Amino acid sequence: MTRLLAIDAAGIAEAAALLSAGELVAFGTETVYGLGADATDALAVARVFEAKGRPRFNPLICHFPDAETAWAHVEPPPVARALAARFWPGPLTLVLRRRSDSAVSQLAAAGLDTLAVRVPAHRAALDLLRVVGRPIAAPSANPSGRISPTTASHVLQGLAGRIAAVLDSGPCVVGVESTVLDVTGAAAILLRPGGVTAESIAEITGPLRRPAGPAIRSPGMLASHYAPSLPVRMDATSVAADEMLLAFGPPLAGAKAVYQLSERQDLAEAAARLFAGLQALDACDRAAGIAAMAIPATGLGRAINDRLLRASLPRR
Ligand code: TXA
Ligand code: MG
After folding, report:
1. CB 206 within 8 A of CB 187
2. Tens-place pLDDT, residues 173-224
3. Pocket test for ligand 1, best of 73, 107, 114, 180 (most atoms within 8 A of CB)
4. Which ligand is nearest to the CA of 34?
5. Hey, which of 60, 97, 98, 102 would you mutate to test ligand 1's pocket, going by the most ligand atoms within 8 Å of its Cβ?
6. What is the pLDDT of residue 102?
7. Other CB atoms within 10 Å distance of the CB of residue 85
8. pLDDT for 298-316, tens place per residue?
C-alpha cells in the first residue's frame, strides 16, 4: 500500500524515515513530482528504475537543500557558483564533475564521473531534504513513457502499490522539468530545456552550446555514458583464460577475475552493483575482455541488458 503523507512535521519526518530506510517516496517540487530514493543507497536507486519500469539506466538528478550541501559532492567552477547564486533554489540542474569522495552510488550517476545536482524551490521538498540529510535521487514520479506527474493523485495513478509513500504538497507550480545544463567544460551545454530559460542562463554563462545532435540517443550515447575500455561479451556460457567474468549466480569456471552481480540472481541487487562491477573489472590489468553471464530480460533485467549491449557494441 502506498501511503499519502501530509506536508506537516509528522508527514515529513515519516517520509524522511522511509527514505533513510531505503524506501521510495514521491514528493512535490516546483517542477514535477519526483520519485525519491537515498542516492547513496544503490539498492534503493535500483528500486527507482524498477518502479518506473525504465528500460535503461539514465543518470538521475540528486536533490539538495542548499548549494553548500551540493558542493560536498561535486566540483563547481566559478560559473556554476554564479548560476547557483542566481537560480537556486529553482528549476535549474547543473551537471558537474563528481568529487571522488562523494557517497552517491554509481548507479544513481549511471557510472559517469559527473553528477547532476539541483536545489528545488519548494518549501516542503527543502524541509524533507534537510530532515533526511542525504542526497536524494529523484526522476519524475511516473512510469517510464508516461507524462510527468504534477499532483499527488497523478503519482498514485501511475505508481500506487509500487512505492512506499507520496508526500502530498498539492499541484506543482512550474509543471515542466528543470533545465539541465552541463557546466563541466569551457562552454555551458544545454542538455534539456526546462523551467529556467536559456536566455537568462546565457546572461551568466555567455552563449550556450547545444548537445552534439541526435547521435546522443543512438549507440553513440556510449560517449556520454560510462563504457568500459575492455570489450564486453554478453550471454557468455564459457570464459576464456584471459577474460574477466561478470557473474549472475553461480560463476562460470576459468575466469581471470570474477565480479558477482548477485549470487542469488536478484535483479535489483545486480542493477545496484552493475556500474561498480564494470569499473572494477575494467581496472584489472592484462585482461582481454569482460564476459557477462546471461541476465533474464524481465523487469530490471531489461535495463541491465540495455547497458551491457551498449558496452558490447563496436567502439568508434
Ligand atoms: O524537474 C526535474 O528535474 C525533476 C524533478 C523531480 O526534480 N526531475 C527530473 O529527473 O526530471 P529525470 O531523471 O526525469 O531527468 C534527469 C535528466 C535526464 O535528462 C538525464 O539524462 C539528465 O538529467 N542527467 C542526469 N544526470 C546527468 C549527468 N551526469 N550528465 C548528463 N545528464 C544527466
Ligand atoms: Mg522524466
Report:
1. yes
2. 998 899 999 999 989 999 998 999 999 999 999 999 887 654 444 443 444 5
3. 180
4. 1
5. 60
6. 97
7. 10
8. 989 999 998 899 888 876 5
Q: Which ligand ends up closest to the CA of 225?
A: 1
Rounded distance from Cα 256 to ligand 1 centre (Å): 37
**Which pTM was predicted?**
0.91
The ligand that comes nearest to the alpha carbon of residue 178 is 1
Ligand 1 cavity residues, CB under 6 Å: 29, 31-32, 34, 58-61, 91, 93, 95, 109, 112, 114-116, 120, 138-140, 177-178, 180, 191-192
